[in-house]
C-alpha cells in the first residue's frame, strides 16, 4: 500500500525518537471517512499499517478549529472536528485531506503528537492545538515540532478579493498575492508559518512540504487526489455532496514505527 512518510525536525535535524507522519497518495484510493459509512479501502489501508493493539482515532471533519486531545481511541467515537492529539503511542491520530493542509504536531517535552486538518475555514487550528498541549503539559515553544504536509499551493489556489483581505488581515499580507481583476493567490503555508512564528516556534522545528496536491506529478502522473483539480470540469452549481463522489480523499496520520 502506497503512502508518504517522514520525520519531525528539531533544530533542523530529523528526530529519530519521535513518531513519523504519514499520508496516503492518489493510488492508495479514496480514504473518505464518515461515522455512518463503511470504507473498505480505508479499512484495508490502515490494517496494513496498524500493528496489534494499535487503534485509529479520527474525527469526522467539519472544516472547523475543533481539536480533541484523547488518551483512548474510544473517546473520539462519533465526534466531529478537525484535529486529534494524544500521548498514547498505541493510538494513530488521523484526519482526511484533499487540497487542505495536513499539519502534523509533536511535543518533544510530553511526547504528545497528532494531526490537524487546516483548510481556509480552519486556518488557525494550529494555534488551538499548540495552546491545548501547552496548557496541559506546560511545554515551551521550542519543544514543539510541526510539519506542514502536502496541500494545494499558491500556484493553483486562486481566491476572490474578500477572502484575500480576510487572510491578509488575520494571517499576514505575505500569504496572498494579486493575480488580476478580482483574483488573488493564497498560500496556506505562509498563513500557517505566520501563526507559528507569532507563537514563537523556531524555524528549525518546522518542515514545509513543497508538493502541490493539485498539480504535482511524479513519473508523469498526478501524485495526489485534489478537490480542485478533480472537480474542475463539474458544473459549478453541483451540490458539494455530489462533487465529493468525484475526487480522491487522502488520509494523514501520525504513528510510531514499532
Supply the CATH architecture: 4-Layer Sandwich
Percent of residues in helices: 10-25%
Whole-number average pLDDT? 94
Shape: globular
Count of distinct strands: 18
Largest sheet: 6 strands, mixed
Which structural class best describes the helix and strand composition?
A: alpha+beta
CATH superfamily: CNF1/YfiH-like putative cysteine hydrolases
Unreliable segments (pLDDT under 50, ≥5 consecutive)?
none
Give the N-terminus to C-terminus distance in angstroms: 18 Å
Overall domain count: 1
Radius of gyration over all CA atoms, rounded: 18 Å
SSE succession? EEEEHEEEEEEHEEHEEHEEEHHE
* CATH topology call: CNF1/YfiH-like putative cysteine hydrolases
Approximately what portion of the residues adopt beta-strand conformation?
25-35%
What is the tally of helical segments? 6
Family: Belongs to the purine nucleoside phosphorylase YfiH/LACC1 family.
Keywords: Hydrolase, Metal-binding, Transferase, Zinc
GO molecular function, one term: copper ion binding
Protein name: Multi-copper polyphenol oxidoreductase, laccase
Amino acid at each position: 500500500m502506497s503512502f508518504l512518510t517522514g520525520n519531525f525536525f528539531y533544530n533542523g535535524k530529523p528526530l529519530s525518537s519521535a513518531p513519523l507522519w504519514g499520508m496516503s497518495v492518489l493510488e492508495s484510493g479514496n480514504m473518505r471517512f464518515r461515522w455512518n459509512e463503511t470504507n473498505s479501502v480505508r479499512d484495508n489501508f490502515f490494517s496494513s499499517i496498524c500493528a496489534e493493539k494499535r487503534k485509529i482515532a479520527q474525527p469526522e471533519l467539519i472544516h472547523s478549529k475543533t481539536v480533541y486531545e484523547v488518551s483512548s481511541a474510544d473517546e473520539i467515537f462519533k465526534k466531529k472536528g478537525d484535529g486529534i492529539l494524544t500521548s498514547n503511542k498505541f493510538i494513530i491520530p488521523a484526519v482526511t485531506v484533499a487540497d487542505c493542509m495536513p499539519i502534523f504536531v509533536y511535543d518533544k517535552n510530553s511526547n504528545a503528537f497528532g494531526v490537524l486538518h487546516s483548510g481556509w475555514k480552519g486556518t488557525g487550528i494550529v494555534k488551538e492545538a499548540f495552546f491545548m498541549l501547552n496548557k496541559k503539559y506546560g511545554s515551551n515553544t521550542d519543544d514543539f515540532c510541526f510539519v506542514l504536509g502536502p496541500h494545494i499551493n499558491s500556484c493553483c489556489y486562486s481566491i476572490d478579493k474578500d477572502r484575500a483581505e480576510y487572510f491578509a488581515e488575520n494571517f499576514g499580507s505575505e500569504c496572498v498575492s494579486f493575480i488580476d481583476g478580482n483574483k488573488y493567490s493564497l498560500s496556506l503555508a505562509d498563513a500557517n508559518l505566520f501563526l507559528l512564528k507569532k507563537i514563537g516556534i523556531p524555524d528549525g522545528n518546522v518542515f514545509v512540504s513543497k508538493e502541490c496536491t493539485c498539480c504535482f506529478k511524479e513519473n508523469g502522473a498526478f501524485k495526489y487526489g485534489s478537490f480542485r483539480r478533480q472537480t474542475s470540469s463539474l458544473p459549478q452549481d453541483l451540490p458539494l455532496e455530489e462533487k465529493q463522489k468525484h475526487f480522491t480523499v487522502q488520509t494523514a496520520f501520525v504513528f510510531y514505527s514499532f
